[in-house]
């Protein structure tokens, strides 16, 4: 790396301003990359990715139908998880004969 030679303070100031802007651009790119990475870790994306990658073995209409159903199943999961304790109580009562 060769040392730069400046003939005036204005050249030094200009170079420092350019470096400052380049640093800010790099920082904003990093922040944007982190934001996009966080967004990709939503439960829907994780489940879709896992199931989608496992469905590569399927071809034709069956795989397409499952891929179309994944978002609806993922949206239904919170409802199912809220209803699950009620269902468990009901099933346990059936086993005891109540």
Tell me about this structure.
The chain is an all-alpha fold and 98 residues long. It has a domain at 8-41. It is built from three helices and no strands. Helix 2 packs across helix 3 (61-96). The model has no long low-confidence stretch (mean pLDDT 74). InterPro entries: DUF6327 (IPR046290). Pfam families: DUF6327 (PF19852).
Fold blueprint:
Blueprint: H1 9-40, H2 43-54, H3 61-96
Helix pairs in contact: 2-3
What's this entry about, in short?
InterPro entries: DUF6327 (IPR046290). The chain is mainly alpha-helical and 98 residues long. It has helices spanning 9-40, 43-54, 61-96.
Major beta sheet summary: none
Gyration radius, to the nearest Å?
28 Å
Spatial shape: elongated
H and E string: HHH
Structural class: mainly alpha
Portion in strands: under 5%
Number of DSSP strands?
0
* Percent of residues in helices: over 70%
Mean pLDDT: 74
Query: Which spans have pLDDT < 50 for at least 5 consecutive residues?
Result: none
Query: Count of helices?
Result: 3
What separation lies between the terminal Cα atoms?
84 Å
Sum up the structure in keywords:
98 residues; mainly alpha; 3 helices; 0% strand; elongated
């Amino acid at each position: 790396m060769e040392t730069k030679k400046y003939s005036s303070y204005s050249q030094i100031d200009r170079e420092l301003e350019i470096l400052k802007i380049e640093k800010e651009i790099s920082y904003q790119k990093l922040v944007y990359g982190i934001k996009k990475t966080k967004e990709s870790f939503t439960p829907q994306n994780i489940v879709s990715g896992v199931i989608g990658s496992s469905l590569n073995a399927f071809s034709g209409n069956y795989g397409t139908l499952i891929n179309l159903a994944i978002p609806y199943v993922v949206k239904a999961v919170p409802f199912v998880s809220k209803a699950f304790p009620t269902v468990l109580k009901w099933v346990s009562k059936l086993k005891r004969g109540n």
